[in-house]
Amino acid sequence: METAENEWATVGERIRLARESSGISVRELARRIDVSASHVSQVERGLASFSVRALYSVVNILGISMDSLFEQATVAIAAPSLEDEVIATSQDGPLDEAGIVLRRGSRPAMQLQSGPRWERLTAKPEVGAEFIEVIYQPALGASPPEDFIRHPGREYGVITQGTLSVQVGFGRAEMSVGDSIAFDSSIPHRFWNETADQVIAVWFVLDAGASDQDADFPSADSASHHHVTG
């Protein structure tokens, strides 16, 4: 499994390529996400990591998907299509190789700055969605994070271990194993672990564009673009 340093070397390289492709300077990106230019430079070189808030701001500004940041920058990996999956499952072969099953030890992962660890639960990036497991380390008596997160879309979560503190808008809740949540991501929100035990949750985040195209999901009519903070 990759170390946190290797993970952020991958993330940083993807961000650098996307930034250069967008014609945005390091200084300008830093200004837009309210961090120092030196911090952006360190992230791009894999020497530092972004907070959840900063990372969501970056993907919005650069017009990239959060899922794509988990992949090696030097490898072009196409998102799965229905046709690809039909072809893959029509053949007699392992579902791992077809990109349908992802083994626990092979999950792409990302450790956020002073926050949770994200592990992607899909073998390939999804179009318009994120399916991740989030691990919050023990932090007995921790205060809520200063930053609220908000972005277009809708998200769903379920707690599989521990007790997570949740705030959506002005509302608060303590969520324990088996408790679930669903809300419009444009509402300011923050999640944190203030217990002495590790907390694990599974999250599904549907981007605004995807939700607008799917009548089965409420659309997120918001003025701004998870997520999960530590």
Q: Helix amount, in percent?
A: 25-40%
Strand order of the largest sheet: 1-2-3-9-4-7
Q: What's the average pLDDT?
A: 83
What order do the helices and strands follow? HHHHHEEEEEEEEEH
Q: Biggest sheet, open or closed, and with what strands and sense?
A: 6 strands, antiparallel
β-strand percent reads 15-25%
Question: What do we call the CATH homologous superfamily of the largest domain?
Answer: Jelly Rolls
Note the total helix count: 6
Shape: globular
* Count of β-strands: 9
What Rg is obtained from the alpha carbons, in whole angstroms? 18 Å
End-to-end Cα distance: 22 Å
CATH topology of the largest domain: Jelly Rolls
Name of the CATH class of the largest domain: Mainly Beta
Can you tell me about this structure?
There is one protein chain. By secondary structure, the protein is an alpha+beta fold. It has two domains: 4-70, Orthogonal Bundle (434 Repressor (Amino-terminal Domain)), CATH 1.10.260; 82-213, Jelly Rolls (Sandwich). The chain has six helices and nine strands, in the order αααααβββββββββα. A six-stranded antiparallel beta sheet has the order 1-2-3-9-4-7. Strands 6-5-8 form a three-stranded antiparallel beta sheet, with no helix packed on it. A hairpin with a 2-residue loop joins strand 5 (164-168) and strand 6 (171-175). Helix 2 packs across helix 3 (37-44). The longest helix is centred in the N-terminal third of the chain and has 19 residues, at 4-22. The two termini are 22 Å apart. The model is unreliable at 72-77 and 213-230 (pLDDT under 50).
